[in-house]
Design brief:
Elements (H helix, E strand, L loop, with lengths): L3 E4 L5 E4 L2 E2 L6 H12 L5 E2 H8 L5 H19 L10 E4 L2 E4 L5 E3 H12 L9 H12 L12 H27 L3 H14 L4 H13 L3 H19 L5 H11 L7 H11 L2 H19 L14
Parallel strand pairs: 1-7
Antiparallel strand pairs: 1-2, 2-3, 4-6, 5-6
Length: 302
Amino acid sequence: MGCLQIRLFGNLVVRRDNELLEPFPTRESENLFSFLVLNRGQLFQRDTLVRKLYSDECESAGRKRLRTAIWRIRSVIEPDGIETDTYISNSDRRIGFDTSTDYWLDIQHFETVMESVLKRPVRELDAEQARRLKAAVDLYHGDLLDGVFEDWCLWQQERLKLLLLTAIEKLMSYSAENRDWAIAILYAHELLRHDVLREHIHRDLMRFYYYSGDRPAALHQFDICANLLLAELDIEPMRETSRLRDEILSEIGSPPSHTLRKIARDAGLQELTQAAAYLDQARESLNTGILKSSEFSPAKHL
């Protein structure tokens, strides 16, 4: 029979052992199948499905549409050679997607990884967990059932989108924790692509640019943030954002350690304060002309 592979991120795609199945013949059958998969493991009374999916029809017409949609679903996923009710169970006049079968579902894998990884603090993540989180994020080819605007789908779209943004922010923080500023910057821009008004992400971007040595880009990011807030919400940046801009703007040449301490305090990054102490030590050694390579080993910034 093989493994039924179902993708709901973006458009519905169904394969069996990596072989693409024929598309469902109608949007109605496609939506019913998607609804049953989203609510996998549950059995629904036929009347409940009629009220939920065909509320614009009288009861008899709704029942007929439901029967037709189920038949069309089975013609695709339970063709000749596969026993009826293998995937769509019909027990005691109740209908549901049977999770005891051999199947793979992208959103289920996505949720499983999120549940196991997202609850861990960033500093407890290892490389393998970060890799799994990135692989799960990569499954998100588009919003759940993109183009479906039914009530039963909208709240699931929002829930999964929130999980995605939380995961991307976790990956951004993990990259910053490991001083991979270029990757952290990419993740920050991805977050802003989804929600351009996340002011704290603009602040993170300012810091990442600053830590990577691109002070002009850090200041330019403040201008981008300020212009967006003014245009979209008619408000000014938060005091914390403006203070960060002022601290970066005050820099001339090498960033003095006292400014690093301020930025570290605002970001809650204790390691950066330690980095500032090393800068103090380096400056003192330079002043006496005895700086040696063995005396100065930059601390981890984030």
